[in-house]
Amino acid sequence: MSITLSILYLIATVTFVVGLKMLGHPETAKKGNLTSAIGMGVAIVGTILLAEKEVPTIIYILIGSAIAVGGIIGWIIAIKVEMTKMPELVSLFNGFGGASALLIGIVEFNKNIGVDSSEKASISIIATIIAAIIIGSITFTGSLVAWAKLNGSMNDIRFPKYNLINNILFIGLVAFATYIAVLNTDSAILMYGLLAASLVYGFLFVVPIGGADMPVVISLLNSLTGIAAAITGILYNNMVMLVGGILVGSAGLILTFAMCKAMNRSLASVIFGAFGGADVAAG
Amino acid sequence: MDQFLEFISSNLQLFYILILAIFIGFELIKNVPTVLHTPLMSGANALSGVVIVGAILVMLQSNPEDYLALSLGFIAVVLGIINVVGGFAVTDRMLQMFKKKK
């Protein structure tokens, strides 16, 4: 990595910290958001323009068009949406971030472990990739469910003993992931199995939670997306992703607790209690 | 286990950064007024879009003939930039609403 790019990443990381700090005070919040946005722009442009090796022009064209397409879509959605629909929009965006992390995980799996790899990857690389896939998948489907629920297009669905089912599924997921990492397998089938199981878990995790508790869940999922970004940062040894992701992860977690406290609820009762919309479900 | 210890010792700096960053995140958000919770959540969401840097790296490092990696990378960049641009724009709109109320 060129030294210029490292310095740009350092600047971006500082703007993230300063921006988050300013976002916490009503007078400076707007400027804080702008500060972080500029830092993000610096990191993105720097990454594209200061690539360490020779990159074919076609790839630059592809990256440029992906950014143009996504940027315009994101901008239009953000500007057009009604004020009342903003929390669900945050959830939708968050789901996109999770999906991005999960796609990176799949490509890196193929490159480092699966079909395209020439040598066996170390267990730490496998663990990192698997963690990115799992967390990315959970935030992706979880956020989409939260979005659909706030949207009103999905009702609370509660299976009998859903807590037990979810907890067993979660333990199974962790065991499955550990198994794959220890096995040091190059089996794409196992990886896609894990991917599918994580997607299902993300869905089942959010489905029973009531609409009133949804902002707390969105904040929690947001924190998870940050962790997924940080994990992919470890994969590329990329400091702006690592620190930015961890900042979101820890700040998001504290924010989740603060939101619970403001609602006089504990996080456990939000996740396991699921009575936020119980009367709706019963009716 | 040996591999694990080796991973830690060869990435010791990484762990220092990790732990310090966790504490900074905690400290930054402590004692934030309740009215700012939603904009803050939205702002943090935009920041988590930093994952797009990884998506761009995927594309930069892929072989031009590797259509699978390129198309997955392309989708990842599109989704990531929606997260970033949309996230910051929505946060800005929320905060604007905030100002008028005051």
TrEMBL record, chain B:
An example Gene Ontology biological process: NADPH regeneration
Superkingdom of source: Bacteria
Function: The transhydrogenation between NADH and NADP is coupled to respiration and ATP hydrolysis and functions as a proton pump across the membrane.
GO CC field: plasma membrane
GO molecular function per UniProt: NADP binding; proton-translocating NAD(P)+ transhydrogenase activity
The EC number(s) this enzyme carries: 7.1.1.1
Catalytic activity: NAD(+) + NADPH + H(+)(in) = NADH + NADP(+) + H(+)(out)
Subcellular location: Cell inner membrane
Record InterPro entries: NADP_transhyd_a_C (IPR024605)
NAD(P) transhydrogenase alpha subunit C-terminal domain span: 15-100
Organism per entry: Lutibacter oricola
Classification lineage: Bacteria, Pseudomonadati, Bacteroidota, Flavobacteriia, Flavobacteriales
Membrane-spanning ranges: 12-29, 41-61, 67-91
Cited Pfam families: PNTB_4TM (PF12769)
Keywords: Cell inner membrane, Cell membrane, Membrane, NAD, NADP, Translocase, Transmembrane, Transmembrane helix
Designated name of the protein: proton-translocating NAD(P)(+) transhydrogenase
Keyword Translocase appears in the UniProt entry: yes
Membrane topology term: Multi-pass membrane protein
